[in-house]
Amino acid sequence: ETGVTQTPRHLVMGMTNKKSLKCEQHLGHNAMYWYKQSAKKPLELMFVYNFKEQTENNSVPSRFSPECPNSSHLFLHLHTLQPEDSALYLCASSQGQGLTGTEAFFGQGTRLTVV
Amino acid sequence: GESVGLHLPTLSVQEGDNSIINCAYSNSASDYFIWYKQESGKGPQFIIDIRSNMDKRQGQRVTVLLNKTVKHLSLQIAATQPGDSAVYFCAENRGNTGKLIFGQGTTLQVKP
Predict the structure, then answer these.
(1) What are B52-78's pLDDT values in tens digits?
(2) Mutation choice for A interface testing from B51, B66, B102 by most A CBs within 10 A
(3) B46 CB near a chain A CB, below 8 Å?
(4) Residue of B nearest to A5 (CA)
(5) Bridging pattern class, strands A110-114 and B32-38
(6) Which pLDDT tens digit goes with each residue over A15-52?
(7) Which one, of B93, B86, B88, lies nearest residue B105 by Cα?
(8) Minimal CB count within 10 Å: which of A106, B59, B83, B109?
């Protein structure tokens, strides 16, 4: 148990559906992240939030829409996804962005399949 | 460009042997490095970290070595156990960017 909880663990959605991924951290951290993990690829950073403010959007398509209502919760809203978006989506948190020597704690991930 | 690479996608070792997993990074401005372990169906789990002002750090059964001259990082696991079987990722944290850049991962297989 890392203190970062993601729901759902598995999600299958059609290309016309709208769904949301949820992440919650109980560590008192100020920074939260979304990563995408595809087969045979390194983890790709998608979004970074620091004190609820988005500080990084790593050229992510607009069909992915993040939301961070407070420092403990992070959402990823999904709509009109493509089959190539199928992947493991990982949420992480850290004490603070930009602090050297700040490890990130990861959730278990949501396995997303787009059909 | 940005890249953190591992030399081998798969490493197979005998139980009880020592394992060495290697990683090369490209950005000399990186100042903090982390090794993560990811077991099947789980998110990456922190193993050990090292700052750029150090060249060696030891944990329980694990040692990380950093060679800044050649931009190389390694993870040594002593007396490898079946529970060590997982994918291992190195990651670099570039100071004020807050970005954690991951390598491709090395799958460690431990043979009984």
Answers:
(1) 999 999 999 999 999 999 999 999 999
(2) B102
(3) yes
(4) B43
(5) unpaired
(6) 999 999 999 999 999 889 999 999 878 889 999 998 88
(7) B88
(8) B83
